[in-house]
């Protein structure tokens, strides 16, 4: 198609792909402005090398709509963290990222109960104290979700 001598062929497969792309673009989530009279919902996830979170609020139909997204590659030393520590790390980093937005109660949804246990554990080391202190700055309910 880049050369003038080549004929352009519009096949059924090409049309199907084009329509699928068009549909995906039209269905992409639209970010909404935060409503500071409502509570926030924060989904937080930790992977082997990446962490990510989504801040949402419910609209008048109780559908969740995204306000902001956060993702970050882990540093070399963070990659060595345990599974639970990575999940707690995304909570801390995403709350810091969304600090200017999260003024009301936050329902924190995580995929592993160990995150809640980590944050509520009475046996603290220096790292846990620092992390828990950062999380305590916010009005948070921690819940477990399955994805």
Automatic annotation (TrEMBL):
Pfam families: RT_RNaseH_2. The keyword Protease does not apply. It comes from the Eukaryota. SUPFAM superfamilies: DNA/RNA polymerases. Residues 10-104 form the Reverse transcriptase/retrotransposon-derived protein RNase H-like domain. GO terms for molecular function: catalytic activity. Keywords: Multifunctional enzyme. The keyword Ligase does not apply. InterPro entries: DNA/RNA_pol_sf, Retrovirus_Pol_polyprotein, Rev_trsase/Diguanyl_cyclase, RT_RNaseH_2. PANTHER family: PROTEIN CBG26694, PROTEIN NYNRIN-LIKE. This is Reverse transcriptase/retrotransposon-derived protein RNase H-like domain-containing protein. It comes from Taxus chinensis (Chinese yew).
């Amino acid at each position: 198609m880049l050369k003038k001598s080549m004929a352009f062929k519009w096949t059924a497969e090409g049309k199907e792909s084009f329509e699928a792309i068009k549909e995906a673009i039209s269905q992409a989530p639209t970010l909404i402005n935060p409503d500071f009279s409502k509570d926030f919902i924060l989904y937080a996830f930790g992977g082997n090398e990446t962490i990510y979170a989504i801040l949402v609020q419910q609209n008048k139909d109780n559908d969740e709509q995204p306000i902001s997204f956060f993702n970050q590659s882990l540093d070399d030393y963070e990659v060595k963290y345990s599974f639970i520590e990575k999940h707690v790390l995304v909570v801390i980093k995403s709350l810091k990222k969304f600090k200017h937005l999260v003024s009301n109660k936050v329902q924190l949804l995580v995929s592993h109960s160990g995150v809640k246990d980590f944050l509520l554990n009475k046996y603290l080391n220096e790292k846990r104290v620092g992390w828990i202190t950062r999380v305590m700055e916010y009005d948070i309910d921690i819940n477990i979700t399955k994805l």
